[in-house]
Amino acid sequence: MNVLFDLNVVLDFFLNRSPWAADAAGVWQAHKDGLIRASISSAGLPTLFYVMRYTLRLLTLDQLSRAATLICALELERIKDPKKLGPWPFEIGLWVGKAATPNRMGAKGARDATPARAKTIAFHNDDRKPSPIPLEDCPWCGTKFTRLSFRLLPDPDYPTDLRVGCANKRCEFSRDRHLPILGVDEPIYRRLPCFMIATVDKFAAMPWTGQVGAFFGRVDRYDAGGFYGPCDPGVGQRLPVGVQPLGCLPGEAEGGAG
User: Fold this and answer.
1) Beta-sheet pairing, 2-5 with 161-164
2) Are both 210 and 167 inside the same structural domain?
């Protein structure tokens, strides 16, 4: 059965709006179980993006997980019909500062404990330590992540990507199909996810981070691993961060990025 979801049903679920969230979760579960085939109007996607962008500034784990669930659903639909929806995956990026997610992948021999490689190895050795990204459960099936859920690819000594997979072998995102989640800055700059959750300190750093030029289309080549281009410090000309208090920055950045 094909079912067209009203935008409010989508927001009720992903933003956990009372008292409708439980009912909305039930119809989403029916879609996941294959009992119905859900869709939303394409006209609702821009509205959904802006509503969730403003609400998700609190960056709670519950809201973060729900946003990732949306991206998982989109990616599964793309996999079913890549000719129609394109070869590039739907992905979500967690661009939230190294206190929550790593800025760099890291490499063997580095003494810094903050890169993704060091955090992943520490979690592999002792799962009582924090996981490399601030998600505890699979956003698609709810299975708790284990030390084997995080993989450094293609080479654990010199990785370029941190991939997250579900430990539940019956989950759609297990085995060789990783979750569409990017939690390290370097892969985010390269893969340019369609949805990003960012904190204000990241907006503040944009004029001094040349790689964000790719967010504005400053790329000149691509391959299976992502998009590449020259670093562009000039992006700072669009964001007048030096003339206003930090509290004004989100509006300036959203105006410039939009």
Assistant:
1) unpaired
2) no
d(CA 179, CA 93): 11
Preceding amide of 154 cis, omega within 30:
yes
User: The whole model's pTM is what?
Assistant: 0.69
User: Of the candidates 89, 112, 129, which is a domain's last residue?
Assistant: 89
Closest to 164 in 3D by CA, of 113, 110, 101: 101
- Per-residue pLDDT tens for 93-110? 888 777 778 889 999 988
Q: Which domain holds residue 210?
A: 206-258
* Other beta carbons within 10 Å of 146: 15
* C-beta atoms surrounding 130 within 10 Å: 12
Q: Do 101 and 123 reside in the same domain of the chain?
A: yes
Containing H/E element for 81? none
Q: pLDDT tens across 33-43, in order?
A: 888 888 776 65
Residues 6+ apart with CB under 8 A from 191: 91, 93, 182, 225, 226, 227
Query: Could you tell me which of 127, 166, 162 has the C-alpha nearest to residue 147?
Result: 127
